[in-house]
Amino acid sequence: MNQLASIRIFARLAECLNFAEAARQLGISNSIVTRSLASLEDHLGVRLVNRTTRHVSLTDTGQQYWEHATELLKQLDAMDKCIASAVQQPGGSLRIAAASSYASTDLLDLLATYRAREPGMRFDLNVFENLNDVAVGEFDVCFSAERRLRDSSLVCRPLMHTRDVIVASADYLARHGAPDTPEELASHDVLIAADSPGRYWEFRDTHGTRRVVVQPIMNAQSPEVVKRAVKAGLGIARLSRSFVRHELESGVLQVLLGDANLCDDERTVWLLYSGQPHMPIALRHFVDFAVAQYRDRAHQRKEPNELDVGAVQHPSSNTELLRSRIL
Q1: Rounded Cα–Cα distance for residues 164 and 223 (Å)
Q2: By CB distance 3.0 to 4.6 Å, which of 14, 62, 150, 312 could disulfide with 48?
Q3: What mean pLDDT do residues 216-240 have?
């Protein structure tokens, strides 16, 4: 027996004192009303309703039970309204995980813009160097800059595609000169980030692929550390164009070998989140906002080597589109 359902049916019957009318208002059959009342009375071990062929009335016990049932149903309705009100408000908190290269560039502007729209939102930010260092259950949404997406169990929204560039500072170039060909990189001081090829870089030309062996003078886990080292004049590095956009625009860093075709140079900034039923409204609002921000930016201006926002990847995992009926 579904006791709560039986209580709701009994409460409507107590209001109507008519089996047919109670069934009509509830959208169920007369037989269901009858069986539900019988099950409830058997469960309680008392008679709640006096019924004859012409008249329906509550027993004294039934009257007391109806009063308590009415209060219970009011409390349940109030609880439902409280939850319904809460889920309609995007305010609250979000656990955000972000690759350090993204956290130090676009993320903070994105969060500031979103919080200006939703001032009640709070953020718990976890910055990582390697996506493997973050467990799926530790975040609500994750921003990852990857050459190849590795976790297909999440809903994957590509926000932006960008490409690597080879960069150096004016100070370094003044002391060492700029390489004119990819092969000349072998004689330069090279700085390597953990997310970049470490032993050799490959280039494409009309004759095929050329492999250039590099001799790193520094390996660093963090792309941010490598960028600062390049700005300090320590050497040449291979970094994402979006990651060094501001340094290139200001002239702090310069692109080298711009005519060379660097292999395996494309990266994607992904927005990752769990495709769960009944997706929290705060998360849905934030995801929609982030995707719209990048789509608008792509339409307003085209960055070099930067492409439009793409469609959702791994649609079989996109369970946020499913809706479950609570019976």
Answers
A1: 12
A2: 62
A3: 93
